Structures are given as structure tokens and as C-alpha cells.
């Protein structure tokens, strides 16, 4: 394999490596709800566009309660993702417009169940671009659980978590992330094999 081929292999591998690093970035703004426009004391809560209304939360719109991370109101557990979390209660919802290129993405988040209300489960739907990707049911007192799914989009779209249960159950949501799909290891192998084949062809040409 000549120097040009080796340089092409190195450049291609470097490009893929950099792409994988860039794609790991979270494309959701304020995914752990740590940037409200108001002060919320420990163990307290307020509503965005609802009763006990407070200010805004950077990146997000909708009607939902924001809570501090403590064993305070509604038995919300301490979240591993910062000082704040949101509740999906009844038919409340949160959403964010995402700036995405066309492609495949991974959505991940964590949820937990209300701990001081011994009623039924809270059900909520996860949607992207108006398409329901998943319907989740969170049991009373459920511990924090990691969730993830994959979706494909043609471009910019809206991410939404919307309650489906018309009673006083609550699903807590935190640590929301959207990342572009990273190439599988097989992609790298195929690239190296293809460039290796180019090297073989180049050597044969030199031999002739």
C-alpha cells in the first residue's frame, strides 16, 4: 500500500472517530431541567402554566410541575441527574423543538413513580414529530429506571412527553438526551476492508 493509500486510511479513520465524538453530544437543551428562571427551594414545587404557577424552564414548554430533588412533595425521590426534575401528572405535558439533521437518533431518559400516592399507575406517551414512539406506565413508588429508544427523522422536530392518566398519579422524568447514532464497529471494519482493497489494486498496477 503506497503513502497515498495509507494517508487516505488514516484520514478516513480520523474523520469517523471525530464524527463519533461529535455525535455523542446531547442535542436536547437543558435535558435535566437545571435551568429554571426562578428560585425553587428544597422540597418544593411549582407548575409551568398551571396552578401555583412559576416562571419558565430553559428549553422546555408545556404544562407540568417542576420539583426540587428531595423527598419532598408527592414523595419524589432524589434524582441522580441534578437538583430538579419534572412530573407528568394527569394530562400534563412537556415538549421541546429539536434542531436535527435528517438521520437516526437515540432518545434516552429516566423515570420514577410517585411515592406518597397509593393509587394507580401514571401512563405517558413519548412522541417525536407527532409520532408516538412509546407508551410508558410507571407504577406507584417505582425507582428511577433508564429508558431509551431509536427514531429516524427527516429534520427538525418536536420531542414530547404527554400524560395519559386522568387522575392524581405522577411519573417523574429527568435526564433527557437525544444523540445521533454512532457508526457501528462493523462500519469501521468495512471502511478498512474497502481501503485495503484499494491498496491491493494499487500494488497490482505498480507490478504491471
TrEMBL record:
Answer whether the UniProt record assigns the keyword Iron to this protein. Answer: no
Pfam families per the UniProt record, alphabetical: PEP-CTERM
Q: What is the superkingdom listed in this entry's lineage? A: Bacteria
What Gene3D superfamilies does the database record attribute to this sequence? Galactose-binding domain-like
Which segments constitute the Ice-binding protein C-terminal domain?
Answer: 181-205
Spans traversing the lipid bilayer: 185-202
Q: Which residues form the signal peptide?
A: 1-24
- Which keywords does UniProt give here? Membrane, Signal, Transmembrane, Transmembrane helix
| Keyword field contains Glycoprotein | no
Coiled-coil annotated spans: none
NCBIfam families associated with the record: PEP_CTERM, PEP_CTERM_FxDxF
Q: What protein does this entry describe?
A: PEP-CTERM sorting domain-containing protein
